């Protein structure tokens, strides 16, 4: 009384194949680039930005470090093939570093000018007028 049931039921479905990774997604990561866990921010880029900001308070040395850290981190980010981000931080650190160097150099030039125009007396009777005239002459030359 038991009949052959092989004709009554269809065969079971085949199991699915391996997942397909969409283009632009990391095969090892948890999602597309930019999602947490797939892309890390370069530490030197953060350091370049922080040290670049400190360059305004402490002038020359932090500014030089910001430039060095910025260029190194920018290079690392460009070579990381999308596994690191922070390129904007690196560029901001580079810009802040160069601005800090420029301010330090202008300050040094100003000190040299002020020292060169000092008459050597302890009493200043011109109230800075002569110094202002020298600065105007220097600005006209530049």
Task: Give a quick precis of the structure.
With 142 residues, this protein is mainly alpha-helical. Helix content is 56%, strand content 3%. It has a two-stranded parallel sheet.
List keywords for this structure.
mainly alpha, two-stranded parallel ribbon, 142 residues
Explain this structure.
This protein is mostly helical and 142 residues long. The protein has one domain (40-141). The protein is built from four helices and two strands, in the order βααβαα. The protein has helices spanning 43-58, 60-79, 87-117, 129-141, and strands spanning 40-41, 84-85. A two-stranded parallel ribbon has the order 1-2. The model has no long low-confidence stretch (mean pLDDT 80).
